[in-house]
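Mods, move this if it's the wrong board.
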Amino acid sequence: MTTPLTLDNIRRAPKALLHDHLDGGLRPSTVLEMANEIGHELPADDVDGLATFFRTAAHSGSLVRYLEPFAHTVAVMQTPEALHRVAFEAVQDLAADSVVYAEIRFAPELHIDNGLSLDAVVDAVLAGFADGEKAAAADGKTITVRCLVTAMRHAARSREIAELAIRFRDKGVVGFDIAGAEAGYPPTRHLDAFEYMRNNNGRFTIHAGEAFGLPSIHEAIAFCGADRLGHGVRIVDDIEALPEGGAKLGRVAGIVRDKRIPLELCPSSNVQTGAVASIAEHPFAELARLRFRVTVNTDNRLMSDTTMSQEMLRLVEAFGYGWSDLERFTINAMKSAFLPFNERLAIIDEIIKPRYAVLVG
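Not the wrong board. Structure tokens:
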């Protein structure tokens, strides 16, 4: 008998997560405790109030306003101990949600206010991930966590961060990313960083098509050569619904589908930033129907007050998905991970498929 698709049961299902920001996934209690230790003033002085602040402030309908609450999380992540703790707790929280593979991204350049070097910042985060994996294993949970280092698109350190990605690629960093406000900061401003990644056989994803629309997606793939698209939700602007029920893809949408460029879709976050009006109106279902390589992601678990299980449940409730659909989206993500092929295949064949077989019955 097929297992009912409840939140508790979805929590048991193995998941692969490609788009999760370290500074957007802190526990409210951790933010409060660490802010008190350093004397950083917060907009609330209790855990529930702080959680409400992050959730409501982020639900702004604007990517720029959505990013404003990050000032508080970044402020408490300026020491090796704080970075290690946040990374460790992120792994704990994801493992508790049955995430078996995660790529967690963060911008090292935002964590050097107290004098840390970029290398020291990455060292602390990677140590936290490694210790989190060990603690999860001791609890009987299997999880592999890798890191993406992100450059801020409004700054001028992207080449430096790309070099950091390559320097640490045998230590747990599997790729590079640019993030931040899209309008006025096109990905082509960072062509030297992307060229450096390609020259060194590095992998990278680009935040595109979240706030600025189709032109940012075109630049990300045509000029920068992105392996994946962070969000990419506005690719739907290049798809025309036909009267007979089909769809006509424009040139950009066509190449994204033809080349199987993964879309790192983040349903709840996309609603909060105004990229889409609601989960029910999210183009996820249309993109999945047209066989784009769609993946389910959290983006910022604190800001969106979400987990991978909750994101999946929202899609189930909105579009009537079953276990086979959730398995397909999970395998899509695992296929698209920046891990070597044999490691991706092992997680799919030895963890994801067997555990879904139990749930499907």
